[in-house]
């Protein structure tokens, strides 16, 4: 049985410093090789925190699994913002296209509590509430009943 190390790293910018170095050093593996592979696998998530799992077996071989960044990070990347609104219900800091919300919901679907794409999209739109982001120029809370009414089914089922 080997060791498992789970960390959050900046996409494409992992280093041998904390949190990786101290966790991997005692395992006796080439930390630079692990860092290089993590950076290659997470390059597409540049600027986002990405969950990474490093499994090291008894023969010092390692396997890297890259998770999907949190919904908040994906929404902020799509909107081109670096942080949410200081007053989410008052100040709007970005606008997320509904198609992007659907794309994020499909990406995160396996990690969500939803059983269908409609409720997964509502989870993503709910994240927009706390970030101070509108969806297609509409306040997220106003979008919920419209999604339930089937107004956007053509986009959800595309």
Descriptive key words:
single chain, Ribosomal protein L11, N-terminal domain, 158 residues, 2 domains, 17% strand, 3-stranded antiparallel β-sheet, two-stranded parallel ribbon, elongated, alpha+beta, Arc Repressor Mutant, subunit A
Account of the 3D structure:
The chain has helices spanning 20-24, 31-42, 71-79, 98-108, 117-131, 140-148, 153-156, and strands at 3-10, 49-56, 62-66, 94-96, 133-135. By secondary structure, it is an alpha+beta fold. The protein has two domains: 3-66, Ribosomal protein L11, N-terminal domain; 71-156, Ribosomal protein L11/L12, C-terminal domain (Arc Repressor Mutant, subunit A), CATH 1.10.10. The protein has a three-stranded antiparallel beta sheet with strand order 1-2-3. Strands 4-5 form a two-stranded parallel sheet. A hairpin with a 5-residue loop joins β2 and β3 (62-66). α3 (71-79) crosses α5 (117-131) and α5 runs antiparallel to α6. The longest helix is centred in the C-terminal third of the chain and has 15 residues, at 117-131. It is elongated. The relative contact order is 0.12.
């Amino acid at each position: 049985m080997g060791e498992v190390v789970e960390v959050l790293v900046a996409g494409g910018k992992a280093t041998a410093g904390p949190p990786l170095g101290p966790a991997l050093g005692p395992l006796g593996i080439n930390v630079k090789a692990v860092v290089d592979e993590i950076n290659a696998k997470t390059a597409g998530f540049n600027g986002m925190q990405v969950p990474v799992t490093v499994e090291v077996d008894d023969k010092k071989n390692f396997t890297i699994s890259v998770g999907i960044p949190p919904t908040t990070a994906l929404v902020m990347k799509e909107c081109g913002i670096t942080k949410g609104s200081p007053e989410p219900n008052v100040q709007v800091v970005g606008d997320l296209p509904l198609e992007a919300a659907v794309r994020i919901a499909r990406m995160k679907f396996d990690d969500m509590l939803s059983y269908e794409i409609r409720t997964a999209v509502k989870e993503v739109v709910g994240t927009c509430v706390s970030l101070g982001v509108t969806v297609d120029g509409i306040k997220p809370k106003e979008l919920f009943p419209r999604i339930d009414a089937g107004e956007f089914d053509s986009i959800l089922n595309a």
